[in-house]
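hiii, so i know i said id send this last week but things got crazy w the move. better late than never?? heres the sequnce for the chain we talked about at the cafe, plus the structure i predicted for it. fair warning i was half asleep when i ran it
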Amino acid sequence: MDMIAADGLWQWSVVDWITPVGLGGPADWDCINGRLSPDPQKLPIIKKVITDRVYGRDELQEVVRAQYPVPGSYYGIFYWWDKWYDEYGGRVESPYGDSQDAFNIGYNQVFSKYSNPPTYDKLRNPIEMAVELISNNNGQFNLQFRMSSSTALDAPPSKPQNLKVTIDALGKSVLSWEANNEPDIITGGKYKIYRAETCSPGETPLFELVTSINAYVSGQPVTTYTDGAARNGVCKLHYKISAFDNTNKESVPSDTVCRVGHLKKESGKGSTPIANYQLYNNYPNPFNPTTTIYYDVKDHGFVNLTIFDILGREVLNLVNEDKEEGQYSIDFDASNLPSGVYIYTLRVNDFTASKKMTVLK
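okay and structure toks below
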């Protein structure tokens, strides 16, 4: 039996190149983008972009090196997991994973034709088989193998993939994810939406069920949900979802995503007065290519919010207008900017504040 990394198949991108120390041998091929390294003595710094259960690569997969166009070139196998750095520049020493890679109770319990990674043969054709982790008792694992199309569907649904949260113009949370495509999800399956709120550092999110929605409507997958809950201030809203098949079996929950609470409140009758001017940390950070900047305006005034590069040169003016008292947010798109550290500065009345953010491509 062949095993691959339990966090699945991903699309990858090369962030940069790094000069290794004592790794023994060049890494002359960018195995992600199919190109030669700009320096044969450098290794790629790579990051996961998005899960892709059909065309993606896992962390254990070897890549055939292309022919190096110089005398003495050859074809060979480049086992790149021994020699790559993660997106933050840290050496990846081992392909065996961590607490969020493993086949663990509560994290990833089902491998099937419909999961990521799927069960497939040596030619990467999905096969009708499901492996379910039932329990782990002090290292004694109970696994159940289902070896036919009929019995494979007796396993719970696979873990939902690629959950994301954005904020709409009204400050509501918009969730999106990749559709589960098990037959018993397509015909009568549901998703459960869970939400938690935290308002202080280190607070543990306590999730509550918000609602259940149909996974498919008229044969079309449902992959978005807008949460009507809005929160003032800087509390965080956390979300996760699970898949629920037509026999009432529920998947383990998706990875958790979060956002800062609703920060688009205009003051007025019945609203809570703003205590101070405030510039908050952007979210997410690092980011690629968009992030959201949040700020409070205590009193009516002329607001200027500007982005600078690390050398102090102005990159973009985001806000340059009068604002009433209130809590605000604005999206910043860095699609046309290179990777690096940038400064954003808020000026309103006598208040000035600056913070750093990192574009990581």
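btw The radius of gyration is 24 Å. thought thatd interest u
miss u guys!!
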